[in-house]
Specification:
Layout (H helix, E strand, L loop, with lengths): L1 H15 L17 H9 L3 H15 L4 H12 L6 E2 L4 E2 L4 E2 H7 L7 H13 L1 H19 L2 H10 L5 H22 L1
Antiparallel strand pairs: 1-2, 2-3
Length: 183
Amino acid sequence: MRVVISMLLASLFLFAFNPFKYPREKVVIDSRYFSKLEKQLSALNENQKWVLESVYRKCLKYDLGNTCVAIAWQESYFGTYKVVPWTGDYGVMGINLYWFFMDNGLNYKNPYLRSKWATKLVEDDDYTVMYAVAKLLKLKQKYKSWIEVWAHYNGGSRPNYWYAKQILNKIYIFRKIILKEVK
């Protein structure tokens, strides 16, 4: 009985909170997140720090350093969670396998091909980061606004402004804590 009630409550929450209905106006820097985000950054292990620095350096030459760091943080917690089966996202930058196949003209119905590319996205951080860079540059050309770029990176043709808010706040904290220490 408890399981049924828990599942019912969880489904009600999921239906009540639809990130695709989150309004663009709410994409703002929100101090309520600061403490949690600061704790996350200060608790990174050596591998996560290495991933953060690696992603930042790879993306910096494309003027995407802050954005890439925030996406790697949001999507995989700097490589900690590279497989998210319920969304179909893989790798340090959370590349959606279905849309990866559609964008590259690959046959998504082939399970061996799906397995091959999912493995590539999980194992090859350089490839995943550069794929994300190409996608972000394409979105930046199309939308001009960073909020739109971030919302469409996650939402595709249906912008996810809740995601954009997460990225904005992660960039703010990253710049405030990490980049301030470097300078």
